[in-house]
Amino acid sequence: MKEWWVQVGLLGLPLLAVYLQVPPPQPSPPLRSWRASGTFFTYKHHNIFYRDSAGAVGSSDIVILLHGFPTSSYDWNKIWEGLTQRFHRVIALDFLGFGFSDKPRPHRYSILEQAGVVEGLVRHLGLRRHRINLLAHDYGDTVAQELLHRYEHNKTGSILINSLCLSNGGIFPETHHPRFIQKLLKEGGLLSHLAMRMMNFFFFSMGLGAVFGPHTQPSRAELWDMWTALRNNDGNLVMDSVLQYLDQRKQHRDRWVGALMSTSVPLHLIYGPLDPVNPHPEFLQLYKKVLPTSTVSVLDDHISHYPQLEDPMGFLNSYLNFINSF
């Protein structure tokens, strides 16, 4: 009798998983407006979403924004207007496998490919001869490190980098502490596949809320927008493939940390010190030791892993102070 119930339970899990994925969430008016303000370009037969806003008159500066995992370019919405008042053009994209961009599966997602996507966008926009300021967060930090390596080694098609600002990313694998769900999904296999299909808004919001500070929690509407962008094109079903970047950081540690150590590009870090993923003081001490020429902005003690959403004015002011300093 006991074995019969176990079999029924195992058969019911896939049915429950399907049930939890229907219907897909619909975008809110703000998220729908964000998408309507952008467009797509094609990179190796994949559609990549991006937004490109004209900004300050009299400025020739361009900034490209690189978002984190598991979210999208919408992470930058709270500082977008402020950036357009300083930069001639403000550009953000959804990486392949994220947001409104295509999410092919099966597919071998890699940081090297995502750097190629950014270079492809720069070519598409006719900006290869322009110097670009890069502003990155989390996963985007690692993409920026690869772009910096290509620039420093004069690789064909590389972006001309004018400055680089990083924020709360796994720059050093040895001080990076991925969440349990990330480790679980990365391993693949039956348990990982079930977890991806069983994931719903409740579990997603619990997991993401844990990397925000207790006093800077996103609203339910904000979490819903993040969940909707992730679920677009079944993005929850490619998370195991995308998460291979955790191993790629270890594999290419010397290449990516070395790019930061050897660069002459102005370098800055904006850091939310309550971050459980890149915890203080462990991360910050190593950063200052390895990169002593980089400038650093440490935000208030209650700011955590998503500083551009938790403290948009503090984040924006820190970034503009850096840009105006050289």
Which key phrases capture this entry?
single chain, about 325 residues, Rossmann fold, alpha/beta
In short:
With 326 residues, the protein is an alpha/beta fold. It has 15 helices and 8 strands.
Q: What is the CATH first-level class name?
A: Alpha Beta
Q: CATH superfamily membership, which one?
A: Alpha/Beta hydrolase fold, catalytic domain
The CATH architecture category equals 3-Layer(aba) Sandwich
Oligomer: single chain
What does this structure look like?
The chain is an alpha/beta fold and 326 residues long. The chain has a single domain, classed as Rossmann fold, CATH 3.40.50.1820. The protein has 15 helices and 8 strands. Helix 4 packs across helix 5, helix 5 crosses helix 12 and helix 8 packs across helix 9. The longest helix has 19 residues. The mean pLDDT is 92.
Secondary structure layout plus pairing:
Layout: H1 2-20, H2 29-36, E1 39-43, E2 46-54, E3 62-66, H3 80-84, E4 89-93, H4 111-124, E5 131-136, H5 139-152, E6 160-167, H6 180-186, H7 189-198, H8 201-209, H9 220-231, H10 239-242, H11 245-251, H12 253-262, E7 267-271, H13 282-290, E8 295-298, H14 307-310, H15 312-323
Parallel strand pairs: 3-4, 3-5, 5-6, 6-7, 7-8
Antiparallel strand pairs: 1-2, 2-4
Helix pairs in contact: 4-5, 5-12, 8-9
